[in-house]
């Protein structure tokens, strides 16, 4: 896909997401008997927005037609399921006030605000765009908690510390089997398995499935580091000396720069280059593994694609049963009671294997093969886009009564 095709795909996806949000909000307007044509008091549209937020956070098909009374009844249950509900709702209220201030020049300051359905729909669409950045604040808090229990400099937390907390409250409850499925468990030392912080924070256990089209997950801090590498290298490959110069001057949230990289790191980078004819592919598994050693708290350890198939919590429970997601208390206590064995500091202690996987294929691959690969990827994306459109656009004979805008069409 070229830039134009990618832009069309992104615009169409955005339109589908906006339609989904608008349709969901319309259902709450109808169940709360709010006027979809004229203005409604802010207190009433706030109730519709709150109901939208409940559904957005829980993605429950049973919460699509709540009345005001039912919303009040279900809110305590939401707090049990989503502990951050109160601060999230407060953030949404602040976001709406900030949007009001931005739109204040278009409103009469002497009249109490009245919101149309279009105004409210615009806000929930805006909410969808802003929610990821807000949710990532919780991710950063999660990372900081894990860093307090880290084996310093390794980006890892022993299971004994993972399952324990200073306040004697269990917070990290995923079972060992599920942690292994997520690809966050380092078992290179069988006597003392540990959880890789960067892998855990960005794993599917911390994702929020807020839409039929996307999932809100923690941001991968390594992507920001790679962006800076790309800007300076401006090529899909680089020599070891170029990368050493760039990386040694590239700080992260937990790594200061400039710094001197160890001989072990330099040697491993040279080995990757020798394997690929003198230069290091930036989009290969070995370089990703090297970045994990340089930034163990920001860059996830890259699992082999053939051995990793992470599942979302609901998928895991559906396959393994309701009790398979959380660790059993006796197993948890066994890990908590285990004493930490002595640990050697340094990147040499982190696991390393020599299996390579390239995102874009070998650099010496024929042009014809690369062209075929591009065509295959293009057809796959187009097929995915068509499937999404067919899932949203009603088939002939389907009632359009509940569509947010029956005359809306896709222009691509």
Please write out the topology:
Layout: H1 3-31, E1 40-41, H2 42-58, H3 68-81, H4 85-102, E2 114-115, H5 117-147, E3 156-158, H6 159-162, H7 176-182, E4 185-186, E5 194-196, H8 197-201, H9 221-233, E6 237-238, H10 240-248, H11 263-275, E7 280-281, H12 285-294, H13 313-320, H14 329-337, H15 367-392
Antiparallel strand pairs: 1-2, 3-5, 4-5, 6-7
Helix pairs in contact: 1-2, 1-5, 1-15, 2-3, 11-12
Descriptive keywords:
mainly alpha; 412 residues; disordered C terminus; 3-stranded antiparallel β-sheet; 15 helices; 4% strand; two-stranded antiparallel ribbon; single chain
Structure write-up:
Among the domains are: 15-134, no CATH class; 139-218 and 307-344, no CATH class. The protein is 52% helix and 4% strand. Helix 1 (3-31) crosses helix 5, helix 1 (3-31) packs parallel to helix 15 and helix 2 packs parallel to helix 3. Strand 4 and strand 5 (194-196) form a beta hairpin. Mean pLDDT is 82; it is low at 363-382 and 392-412. By secondary structure, the chain is mainly α. The longest helix is centred in the N-terminal third of the chain and has 31 residues, at 117-147. The protein has a 3-stranded antiparallel β-sheet. A two-stranded antiparallel ribbon has the order 1-2. Strands 6-7 form a two-stranded antiparallel ribbon. The protein has helices spanning 3-31, 42-58, 68-81, 85-102, 117-147, 159-162, 176-182, 197-201, 221-233, 240-248, 263-275, 285-294, 313-320, 329-337, 367-392, and strands at residues 40-41, 114-115, 156-158, 185-186, 194-196, 237-238, 280-281.
């Amino acid at each position: 896909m070229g830039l134009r095709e990618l832009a069309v795909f992104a615009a169409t996806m955005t339109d589908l997401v906006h339609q989904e949000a608008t349709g969901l909000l319309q259902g709450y307007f109808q169940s709360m008997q709010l006027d979809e044509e004229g203005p409604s008091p802010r207190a009433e549209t706030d109730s519709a927005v709150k109901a939208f937020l409940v559904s957005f956070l829980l993605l429950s098909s049973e919460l699509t037609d709540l009345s005001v009374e039912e919303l009040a009844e279900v809110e305590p249950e939401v707090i049990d399921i989503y502990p951050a509900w109160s601060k999230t709702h407060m953030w949404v209220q602040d976001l709406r006030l900030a949007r009001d201030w931005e739109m204040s020049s278009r409103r009469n300051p002497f009249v109490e605000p009245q919101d149309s359905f279009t105004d409210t729909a615009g806000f929930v669409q805006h909410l969808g765009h802003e929610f990821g950045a807000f949710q990532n604040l919780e991710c950063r808090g999660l990372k900081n908690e894990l860093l307090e229990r880290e084996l310093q400099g390794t980006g890892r937390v022993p299971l004994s510390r993972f399952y324990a907390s200073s306040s004697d409250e269990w917070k990290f409850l995923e079972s060992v089997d599920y942690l292994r499925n997520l690809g966050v468990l380092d078992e290179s030392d069988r006597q003392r398995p540990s959880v890789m912080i960067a892998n855990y924070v960005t794993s599917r256990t911390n994702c929020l499935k807020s839409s039929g089209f996307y999932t809100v997950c923690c941001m991968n801090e390594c992507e920001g580091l790679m962006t800076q590498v790309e800007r300076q290298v401006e090529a899909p490959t680089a020599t070891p000396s170029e990368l050493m110069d760039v990386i040694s001057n590239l700080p992260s949230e937990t790594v200061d720069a400039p710094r001197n990289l160890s001989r072990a790191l330099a040697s491993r980078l040279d080995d990757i280059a020798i394997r690929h004819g003198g230069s290091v592919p930036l989009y290969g598994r070995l370089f990703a593994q090297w970045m994990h050693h340089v930034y163990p708290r920001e860059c996830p350890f890259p699992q082999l694609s053939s051995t990793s198939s992470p599942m979302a919590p609901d998928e895991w429970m559906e396959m393994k049963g309701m009790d398979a997601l959380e660790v059993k208390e006796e197993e948890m206590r066994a890990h908590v009671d285990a004493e930490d064995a002595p640990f050697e500091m340094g990147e040499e202690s982190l696991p390393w294997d020599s299996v390579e996987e390239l995102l874009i294929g070998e650099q010496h691959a024929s042009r014809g093969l690369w062209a075929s690969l591009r065509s295959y990827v293009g057809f796959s994306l187009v097929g995915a886009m068509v499937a999404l459109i067919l899932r949203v656009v009603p088939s002939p004979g389907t009632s359009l009564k509940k569509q947010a805008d029956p005359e809306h069409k896709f222009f691509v």
